[in-house]
């Protein structure tokens, strides 16, 4: 189990509903600092349960802090959470949705999802050669026969992608035809996603090393006024995976699980996702063919190159991608404003 790293972790929560779910997480989250991004109407008062150490930002705060750059932060979409990634100063970020609760493992024990993510992030990944006994760094496991010794040190882990029991993260068409599906399968495994393979990153239960990959963990312009929604985490997942592959970092998926309680409205979701359902047939081949130049040696440089290529290759698909590529550049400008060693800024709430 990873040591408690509470001085090095921020928990980022986007909310347009309520924060009552925090009571369920109190034993695990109380030692940590929360960054709450209040979406929707900034005049609505959001109650934070007593005893939590937090900073809370609403749309007025985002506009005040970022000025004209605020247009790269989505409104009325969970994508707003990435503002929390921007203003955090910590090494690790854990982001969780406000309809997610503590799950139990098959033995009935409550799962400390954050501790498992920190364990995943502080142990290496193995993107270059698949270990058939899954996570070789786990207690009671190891590399299997035939695994090259030259690769057993692994690489730094940048992302830990957790899963969900109960309501699965389906897209709207799937949810419409299978409304009663519930995920009851607890798979006791953590796997490194091989280099060169993309995956559908869900932000419901996600942790990452902000120093390694934070600059690329941008959730795009989605929601209000945009032709696309609910592809925020997908876009960030494809971008970060391509950047991790280039920089030699690992991405893990699997444990920990949490309990996802609310099925969002599939008809509303269909409206938000509609363009994404066919644009993704263009987006994914784009990411599969991306080659980043050797001169890109950190997440910011990789991300700016990605923005350039996205504009060139996806701009012809729809003008939206030109705006998205521009927003990616604005995000890096904001990132550097907040994170360049010279002028480390605080997003005073
Ligand atoms: O306009 C909005 C809508 C939602 N939020 C907050 O974002 C998360 C996720 O919202 P929700 O639980 O309704 O969405 P799901 O369909 O269950 O989750 C999937 O969609 C992704 C949203 O893009 C999410 O990451 C996926 O897991 C909640 O905390 C809402 O309060 C918002 O801030 N603004
Ligand atoms: Mn949800």
Automatic annotation (TrEMBL):
GO biological process: cell wall organization; plant-type cell wall organization or biogenesis; UDP-L-arabinose metabolic process
Enzyme class: isomerase
GO cellular component, one term: cytosol
Name by which UniProt lists this protein: UDP-arabinopyranose mutase
Organism in which the protein naturally occurs: Solanum lycopersicum
Chain's role: Probable UDP-L-arabinose mutase involved in the biosynthesis of cell wall non-cellulosic polysaccharides.
Sites annotated Required for activity: 145, 152
InterPro entries: Nucleotide-diphossugar_trans, RGP, RGP_fam
UniProt keyword Cell wall biogenesis/degradation, yes or no: yes
């Amino acid at each position: 189990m990873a040591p408690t790293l509470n001085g090095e972790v921020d928990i980022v929560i986007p909310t347009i509903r309520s924060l009552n779910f925090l009571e369920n997480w109190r034993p695990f989250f109380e030692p940590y600092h929360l960054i709450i991004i209040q979406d929707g109407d900034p005049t609505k008062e959001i109650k934070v349960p007593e005893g939590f150490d937090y900073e809370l930002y609403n749309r007025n705060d985002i506009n005040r802090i970022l000025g004209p750059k605020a247009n790269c932060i989505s409104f009325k979409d969970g994508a707003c959470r990435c503002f929390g990634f921007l203003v955090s100063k910590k090494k690790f970020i854990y982001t969780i949705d406000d309809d997610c609760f503590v799950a139990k493992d098959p033995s009935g024990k409550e799962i400390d999802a954050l501790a498992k993510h920190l364990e995943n992030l502080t142990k290496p990944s193995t993107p270059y050669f698949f270990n058939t006994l899954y996570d070789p760094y786990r207690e009671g496991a190891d590399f299997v026969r035939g695994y090259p010794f030259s690769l057993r040190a692994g690489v730094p882990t940048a992302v830990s992608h957790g899963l969900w029991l109960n309501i699965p993260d389906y897209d709207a068409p799937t949810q419409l035809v299978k409304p009663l599906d519930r995920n009851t399968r607890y798979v006791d495994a953590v796997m490194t996603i091989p280099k060169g393979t993309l995956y559908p990153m869900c932000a419901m239960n996600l942790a990452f090393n902000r120093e390694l990959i934070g600059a690329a963990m941008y959730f795009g312009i989605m929601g209000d006024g945009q032709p696309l929604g609910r592809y925020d985490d997908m876009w960030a997942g494809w971008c970060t995976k391509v950047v991790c592959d280039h920089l030699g970092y690992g991405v893990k998926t699997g444990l920990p699980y949490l309990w996802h309680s609310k099925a969002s409205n599939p008809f509303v979701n269909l409206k938000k996702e509609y363009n994404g359902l066919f644009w993704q047939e263009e987006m994914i081949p784009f990411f599969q063919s991306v080659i980043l130049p050797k001169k890109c040696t950190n997440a910011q440089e990789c991300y700016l190159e990605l923005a350039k290529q996205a504009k060139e290759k996806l701009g012809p698909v729809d003008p939206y991608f030109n705006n998205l590529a521009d927003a990616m550049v604005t995000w890096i400008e904001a990132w550097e404003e907040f994170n360049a060693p010279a002028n480390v800024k605080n997003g005073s709430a």
